[in-house]
Structures are given as structure tokens and as C-alpha cells.
Amino acid sequence: MKITDVKIRYVEGVVPNDMLVLDMVMRNRVQYLPTNNHYSLSADNMTRPGAAAGGDMKKVDAFLYIETDEGITGVAGPIMNTHMIAPIIRNSFRGFLIGEDPLNTERIWDILYRRDLFNHAGVNIMAISMVDFALWDVKCKKAGLPLWQLVGGATQTELPAYATCVGAAYKEDGSGYHLDEVAKLTQWCAENGFAGVKWYPHRGPADGKKGIDEIYELYKVIRQAGGPDLKLMLDVWSGWDVNFTLKAAERLAELDFYWIEEPLLPNNIDGYAILGRQSPIAISAGENIVTRWNLVKYLEKDALDFYQPDPAWCGGISECIKMMTLIAMSNKRIALHGYCVTVCAQLAAAYTANICPVSEYLLYITPSGQFFYKEPAIPLNGKLSLPKSAGIGTDIDESKVIRSWFME
Question: How far apart are alpha carbons 111 and 7 in whole angstroms?
Fold first, then answer.
């Protein structure tokens, strides 16, 4: 079996207006950063999809196609940061891929990783991840099996999902949340079976004790609306420091938090180790940890309680499997970051619930990200089920495509 071509296909469709495409998310999430004046995004410089008839939105996604001489095509996507990653795959990786056996995923990963020894993070690793996704799609289709069966079968057949509420109920002026809307959405999540909810703080170190008090009031509303059994997560998006995190954790602990996510910048491993020792609330991070070599640095210092690698960013399915094995061996828990929910759920299914207790579902982002899929991963009663079709779950539903073209 040989790879015959590597293509980038752009597909255009019309997203229903009840499937929100939240291009305001970034603006909402950076409000509390100490670098706010540098990075706040205004409505004028946001990229917005074009409006179609009836108020629906036009959407264009890019997918990677790896074709083989046996007629099996591996599909991966949507490709994030398309303008940077697609050219790497099409122009830099293509020559290394054509003629290779797509089933030799370890060999191909090693070739691509060694191709540029100066770029072992960022878009280069994300490009390798997409290639690896497509190769695993070929491998699964060749075997006639869904991904979860090929990586070891299911220990969990249904995965409890938690709802990431990024972009919801945030005031346009950046002053905080509409608490009544926060309460309504949290209650809806609890009533629909989600295991937990994750919200984002609107205050940081510059706000001091007053800011912590406001975060406490936000999560007090969330706890009251969701009830005592709903898991509470707080995603800081690398916006805090060690001291502020410890003070916030001490104040918030009485609300029974499940974790505080990514309070520090990704490479502040020593800082995370301090939090791991002193925080009364579990600390999670890992969406920015790429490859097993970077992961080991965290494990050696016992820096985190929950690890959250993203297979679409960390080096692909091949690399994520290795990372998950190391995490499980270290008696830590895994909650994969959910850029591609269908892949994350299938990888998590191989582990018991004490290792992979929850799966992420972004309420206002995942539906749009999966819009073109034939079999999108959608929680039912708060749980994700496993697909039955061969592949990794990213094949395109052609009925949703109104126009497509290939990258030249």
C-alpha cells in the first residue's frame, strides 16, 4: 500500500443560525489578562463568516486528504490555523509522504519530526498531527474498524461529557457575566446530564482580592444553579500567576471545585509544581504540552493532577497514545482537550473511568467544528457514544457541501 497524493480540500457550507460560530470568543477570554491593552480584540478586527439567506452563516473548513493506491483515502480536519498549517502539509510534507506505506505511522511520524529539528512545537507539530490523523484514518479503513477498536477496544462505551461554556453570557463591555444567563445555562447543562461545566474567570492578578471575590460570586451562582453533584471547572487560559492562583483556590475551595485549568503559562513547570503541592483544588493543564519529551518534564516534577493533551496539537494520535500511557503510569488522570471530540472520545474509551473520567464538549464551538462530519460526536443525556463506522470519524457529509476546491 502506497500514498499516491496529499491534498488540501476546502469545503463550504451554510451553518444554521442556531449553531453559533463564536468568533467573539477570543475577545471575551482575554479581558482579564495582564496584557489586556495589547491583545484585546475589537469587533472591527474580528474575522466573521459571511451571512447567507435567512441569517444563516457561510462556513469554510479545510480538510486533509491522503490518497492511496488501494483507493482508500484518509481524511482529517478541520485544519486549525489553515493559512499556516495547510502550506506546511501541502508544500513541505507532501514530498516526504508520497510513496510511503500509510500503515507505517511510526516511520512517517519520525521522518516528519526529524525533517525540521528547529520547529518541534506550534504549527509544525499541529501539521504533523493532522497528517497522523489522516494516516490513522487510512489504517482504520483498511482494517474496517473504528479508531477505538484499533487502539485497544473500549473500557468505557459511554463517556461522561462536561460542557465548556466559553463565550456564553459574557457582557460586551468586558465587565463580567450576566449572572442570570450563567445560571440558566448551568441549570440546562445539569438537567441535560452533563457531568460538569467549565466557565472562564473575568478577573486576574491585577484585580487583587476584589477580583477573587467577583470570581467567587460567579461560581457561587454556578454551584447553586447546577446543584451539589455537578463538577465545576475554571479555565484560566494561562492568565494568572502562582500567588493569585493560590489565593483564588483558597477562596473557591468551599464550592467544591473539580479543577482549576491552565492558570499559568505552559512552560512554567516549576510554578505548576508549587500549585500541585499547595493548592486545595486540583490543577489541570496540558493542551499546550506537545510530544512525550515535554510531557515528561511535568511528570518528573509531579506538576499536575489532570493532564489535558490534545491529539490534534500534541503530535497526533500516535503521539497522544504514548503520552496517555505515560500519564496513566504516573497515576494521574487524563481529560483530553477537545479540539476533535470524536478522536478524543475514542482514545479515552480505551481507559477506565478512574484514568479518563470526563470528556470535553464545547457547547458553542464543537457543533460548528463538526458541522461537515458524517457522524459528529454529540452527547446524549450528557454522554458521548462511540462510532461504529470504520475510520477516525472525520469523513465529510457531502450533502452539507455547497462548494469545494483543492489547494493549488
Answer: 19
